[in-house]
Design a protein that fits this description.
The protein is of the alpha/beta class and 577 residues long. Among the domains are: 160 residues, FAD/NAD(P)-binding domain (3-Layer(bba) Sandwich); 129 residues, FAD/NAD(P)-binding domain, CATH 3.50.50.60. The protein is built from 18 helices and 20 strands. The radius of gyration is 24 Å and the shape is globular.
Length: 577
Amino acid sequence: MTSSTSSGNPKDARILIIGTGVAGLRTAKTLLDDGFKSVHLVSETLSAGGIWALDDSGMSYPGLLTNSGIGDYEFSTAPMKEDPEFLKNNEDRLSGATVGRYLEDFYEKHVQDRAGSIRFGHRVVHMDRIPGESTGWKIELQNVKTGEISTEVWDKVVLSVGIAASINLPSCFTDLSAVNSFQGMLTHSSRLTSKLHDRILSLPSSAKIVVIGGGKSAADIAQLYGGLGRDVTLAFRQARLFAAGGKKLDALVQTRIGATLSPHKDSETRLEWFLHKTRLGAFFVRRMMGNTVAEWLKGLRISPDSPLYFQGSHNILYFGPSVLGGRAMSYKSGFHSLAAEGKIKLVKDADPVGISSDGRSVVFKDGRTLEADVIVCATGFGDPITFIPQETKKQLGLSLEPPCSPTNPYEGLADFLSLQPVPGPPRSDPANHVYRGILPSGALESRDLVVCGGALALKTPFICEISSHWISSFFLQSSHLKLPSSTQEAFDASEDHAQFIRARYPLTPFPWGQTTYCAWFNTDQYVESIFEDMGVESNRREAGMLGLGFVLGNLRPSAVKDLGEERRALRVASGEE
């Protein structure tokens, strides 16, 4: 296979998309719609859907409920069909299985018969520059069933591996001798297949299930078994299970209210200036958010003496997605209700260090032990891009690097009165340097590598869809796409964003190793910046109450259904097509 596009036409480039989840499938459709002739996909999973794949090669565990409802998790050209039975049982939260079915259907209708080669069950084991070349990629693929290795060369690559491609286990459970000494079942939440779930349910009802972790997956699994009347204990270092739900959260997330009330380094509207940089506005923001959080805490029955209460629970402004990622846990039969009723036991400040000598208990750092027949580690994920050599990752801006300056320029965030007093110094977490969460800074000039689906933001399918259009414009070398003027400028912009996030969320360790951009409550500002880059209309909200669409209107997937045509019209007008 060759890597050069001798015709000079960008649409002749041979493009490999790594991943067939939300980001990979959406990017494939956009590139194909824009006329790219050689779009190929490869995935480690055995079917379409990525982590949502319906077979056991995906990472969706039984009972998984997303934070999205009907209409929130769909693409503009493929509305999700409502399922009355599902809505009745789950109070409008989408299950992992529902998302999996949706993506499989999208693949069959929009990608399967249009793309070039589509290979499932193939793992990327190595990817690096073609020796002696400044562009193009040499990739080694391994067949997950046979182990056979093949080597290929590609012009351009789209990394659509998401943020959950590799599992993270407590160090004590990475030692095979420790794992083998355990007399029960031990697994990671992403490996909790339906078969393993059935095995767990076949155990006596007295079997003790210990879930380790403090995030949404941990709560999901504790809720699953607690709701079935099993003996389940959730052990965590610090709770990250503060979950909200109902109309107030929907108002914050679905409209621009949340983004407007959340300080952003590029807050430019007059309303944002007033709310965050005047004493009266700041007082309003703190009072509104404080009252809202107090109401949520009361509704979830989380009192100051609850193990689920943590420092700063009262202030939503300082926390990111690890805290506010659990809309699905708040309904009446959810995690918090079961915990309040004692159907899920809670153990706080629990740092596992190994298995007891008799192989029947988890041992924690402070000497405590928990008897267990089943251990489920819901302990998150690691670096999803382990197949690129570290030196190459560093050149691209994909490696994790410490802050470039020991003094954070946003220290204190003095201009943002709504955040005062800041509850701690800026964090020093290492971060990558991916412009807009899409373009590795070191790939600006070569134009042969992008990322889709790496941003940590609300409205994942929507973000992936507009990112796919940005990517297509980038590959088309469209003059209408606003880009940094140099690699250094791209790097500096990414570092500036990371520095702001380190100071903006001093109490939240962001998973930079898994994500390329942290937007969260500022998803709206992030979306607007991507639209502005492409030279298209940035305010796409519905009219909203009282005509205040910019703040109160919803941002629906349908708002971008003609985005491809809008971009094409710009290229035609300028003679590019």
